[in-house]
Design goal:
Order of helices and strands: HHHEEEEEH
Number of helices: 4
Oligomer: single chain
Distance between the termini: 33 Å
Structural class: alpha+beta
Amino acid sequence: MDYNNISHNRLMNEEMKMIFRLMSEDMTEEEIRTAFQIVLPFGKMLDYEKHIKTNYISIHYVVPEEKPVIHEMELLPDDVYFQCEKVGKERLLENGEKLYQYRQFMVARGYSEIWLSNPYCINK
């Protein structure tokens, strides 16, 4: 770890002041694609839909190595769900490392609900 720039980073964080952001309103297409690639790096995102009322994003995608079936994934502030064709219901992303990386991304961007009710956070 490089500790040479810690004081500089602290100043930047104090100036920027982290705020909670609604992912369904503020998340850019580039951020959506990044989140998708964290969770499923071998998948190909086709399109997405922002659900403003419930603050999540659904993504339609294909997996190039599989038969041509369109899958669906739901990105939530702190979790990811897949629509399973065989099971017929959603299942939580169980890969610990991928989920951890996804949550790191969401916290860093201000979309995680960890920022809600956080006394050290300025809420919109």
